[in-house]
């Protein structure tokens, strides 16, 4: 899994986890690294990557929010070198698909990934349904484009759950993939049920 992330996004998992956890700790309040409520959804959509980098400029964020995820030898050898991962991924595409098609595929993937990730943080706190008592929203069309991540209100209501669909009418492609991997013995589910936060339970009551 880390290899796929390394090749397709260049993200350092420990850094992403730290910023994500801080976002949940200060959702749409002072301290949130990428709140459209504080910064405006257009700013977050356009500058999502820059906001992540700004948050990571504080070295204390990793110690506070990702202490349980220390670097291992594979991180030091491969996964902490994000540019190497991206270039390797592009090279693989160009070898498999040919130079032109591979480059165009990499270009399209990069733009779709950046736009989709930003949209979850920007649109997913501004437009859409709020079945639970939090500022995030559910956008089913965005969930189609982001493997379920557009069901963002549900995610904030149950942040530890791998399942983002809470109602029969909600479609969560990412959950289908996770269940398939688990059935094949390629992933382990710590739990499959939806565990709401106390605030979400109160709001749903």
Q: Helical element count? A: 12
Helix content: 55-70%
The biggest beta sheet is recorded as: none
Computed Rg: 18 Å
Name the helix and strand elements from N-terminus to C-terminus, one letter apiece.
HHHHHHHHHHHH
Report the principal-axis shape. globular
What is the rounded distance between the termini?
37 Å
**Unreliable sequence segments:** none
Number of strands: 0
Q: What structural category do the secondary elements indicate?
A: mainly alpha
State the domain count.
2
* Mean pLDDT figure: 92
Task: Sum this structure up briefly.
The protein is an all-alpha fold and 205 residues long. The protein is built from 12 helices and no strands.
Description:
There is one protein chain. It contains 12 helices and no strands. The protein has helices spanning 2-8, 13-25, 36-39, 41-56, 60-65, 73-79, 82-97, 99-122, 140-145, 152-157, 173-183, 198-204. The longest helix has 24 residues, at 99-122.
Write a concise keyword list for the protein shown above.
globular, 60% helix, mainly alpha, 205 residues
Detail the topology: elements first, then pairings:
Layout: H1 2-8, H2 13-25, H3 36-39, H4 41-56, H5 60-65, H6 73-79, H7 82-97, H8 99-122, H9 140-145, H10 152-157, H11 173-183, H12 198-204
